[in-house]
Amino acid sequence: MAALAASALLIISVALPVQQQPELLDAGKGQRPFDVTIHAVPLDEIVGGGPARDAIPALDHSKFVSAKEADQFLRPKDRLLAVAMNGVAKAYPVKILNWHEIVNDEVGGRAITVTW
Given pLDDT bands bounded at 50, 70 and 90, which one contains residue 72? Predict the structure, then answer.
């Protein structure tokens, strides 16, 4: 009987999930850490990359051209982000935003930020 009770206890303890301790990675000064407790890629294979913080310059004084001029370097399938305000419309080609990611601009008398 004692052996049966011990077997039942062993089965129950194996069947209960063990609470996993959170595994956290530092995210930098003043930032909450990243929870990487569950991950598909081994953590030692994850490396930093890309440009450093603030290394991608925002466009602050964008040059705009007419739609006819834009036909010289844009294709019909190129994607654009467009903004229209107070009767003024502007388009921001994604292929340019891929390199700058942020445009500080003014549309229809209002300051805007376009991000990608």
Answer: very high
pLDDT band at 85 (very low <50, low <70, confident <90, very high): very high
The 3-class secondary structure across 24-87, one letter per residue, is EECCCCCCCCEECCCCCCCHHHCCCCCCCCCCCCCECCCCCCCHHHHCCCCCCCCCEEEEEECC
Q: CA–CA separation, 116 vs 114, rounded Å?
A: 7
Flag whether the pTM goes above 0.85.
no
**Distance from CA of residue 47 to its chain's centroid?**
16
Domain interval for residue 110: 56-115
Please indicate, yes or no, if residue 84 is contained in any of the structural domains: yes
